[in-house]
Design a protein that fits this description.
- The strands form six sheets. The chain has a seven-stranded mixed β-sheet with strand order 19-22-21-20-23-24-25. The protein has a six-stranded mixed β-sheet with strand order 8-11-10-9-12-16. Strands 1-2-4-3 form a four-stranded antiparallel β-sheet.
- The chain is α+β, with helices and mostly antiparallel strands and about 650 residues long.
- It is built from 22 helices and 25 strands.
- Helix 16 (about 420-430) runs antiparallel to helix 17.
Length: about 650
Amino acid sequence: MSGRDEREFKVKPTAPRSRDQRFLTRVLTELSKAGGKILKPALARTARTGARLGRGQVAAGMAGRSLGARSRRVIIKTRLVLLKKAGARSTRTHLRYIERDGVSRDGERGQAYGPATDKADLSAFEERGLGDRHQFRFIVSPDDADLMEQLRPFARELMSRMETDLGTRLDWVAVDHWDTNNPHTHVVLRGKDQTGKDLVIARDYIAHGMRQRACELATEWLGPRTEQEVRQGLAREVDQERWTNLDRQLQSRLDNGSVKLDRNSQDAATRQRRTLLVGRLQRLQSMGLARQVAPDRWTLSSVHESTLRSMGERGDIVRAMQRALGGQTRELAIPDAIADAGVVVGRIAGKGLVDELHERGYLVVDGIDGRAHYLRLPGGAELESFPTGAIVQVRGNSDVRKTDQTIASLAQDGLYRTDIHLARVQAASPARDPARDVEFHVRRLEALRRAGIVERVADGLWRVPADFAARGRQYDSERGGGFVAELRSHLPIERQARVIGATWLDQQLLDGERAVANRGFGAEVKSALRERVDFLVSQRLADRQGQRVVLARDLLATLRNRDVEIAGQALQKETGLAHRPLADGERVTGVYRRTVLLASGTFAMLDDGMGFSLVPWRPVIEPRLGQTMTATVRGSGASWEFGRQRGASIA
């Protein structure tokens, strides 16, 4: 071949096939390692030829090159939400959550903002995203957020840099939270790019690139950490009973199951770092998580990381319980003690979020057994449904429910009848409210009907499978959380003692003696019960006969009717509509106007055009506010039918 031919020879590789993205990924990886720079036109071509990689693949490889040991640290948690699966109300619920009360720096309600406004229109944002396939939710938490006067400019600059990395404008809103030890920002990003196509972000960018951009930005704004700051931060980690940065460094140095720490470094900073790592290893050895096998070599336990993460989580739980109790002395029950105890009843002393990104909440329950209990709520449970000071009942859902056992025992030839159940309760416990007992069981059957486990044949008649109790237990287990929390009264016991209405205290009097301790909240309950008896005697609803207290027949129904009548008269004056009281078994159709919170529970106001009635409320009707529905009163509850025509009811 002549020299002229050699000079003219050019390699022209063809484009890789779109279905084989591994080739493109390798090219981008090697280019990043070699320090190559890719301009926006090239990035655009990459996006066209390798769309499946998502936007930001190249930027992920380029980000963080300037970061070092003294760089500022930012933690970013990401959640991709598939909106169709999450439900129509998912966006609204999340936006309402991040704007909740008490999260701003001055303890006020949070304020959403956007790229160019300090007061974002969340309704407009939600409307723009109605047809979106997915949505991104981020929590951005700089380690040194307390050094920043505001988080808002930081979030805006970070999102601006993301737009550059991803090559598109982004539609987002954010809210800053200052109500924890780690101030942070919640960002909600629509899953559409500026052309209206689905916004697909590369996994590497979500996992690393975004965080590295945030670290770069924090370091630019606050400057690198000083050597003293780095040493002090690591020194605090030596004795901590949680997973730390020192543990990450030890894990990264693992070689064939052991860590070797050389002594011969001439660099002072390296020697200082070695001293801290040795100190950490000695602390781990005292905890049984490490062992020194040679002067410079250590082995780590296979459960090193999982144990430390569990210990850190437990420490967080203890601190949350102590904050909720406000200095009151209580025995702290371990998180899974409720499953062992069966049922825990008590006052909600505090609440919060275990996982802000997934909105998983927790309750601290000051139990009538004198102990404090920590409960993680199942996914989807709203903290707003559990006001502080209210009375709650918590039970493990790993065992068969008592209601399921009762239904199974009463079923004859696979059929459960409410009239038979009602007669059994009246014969066994004349003082109890039989309709209330049966209503609890009907409510359970309705939930299992919606899950396809039972079938409602007619009013008061249900077809149940032979393995009903086992399937009910499986249903509870699959709903998650390990526990079920049911609100028993929104009123604190102090207000229940002398109020007209069927209260939780009245139910305790009817139930007789139960495991109420003489200490802690149990002692407060016993005092409130004595005061409640005095009040009932003054209302001629109870009579003292020596040491015995005889309660009026149909006590709960009488109190509930009085409560509803008082509320009905007040609403009649307010609205000008006539109050139409309902008898047990009566049926009413009307427009659901509002909810009314009474001492006896929550009631729905049904307007039939000529007057209104107050009917026991159920959560399933709340989305139908303003719609026409039919209710049939059943003791302390009601069954609901949607629309004017008779259809499937909700008990």
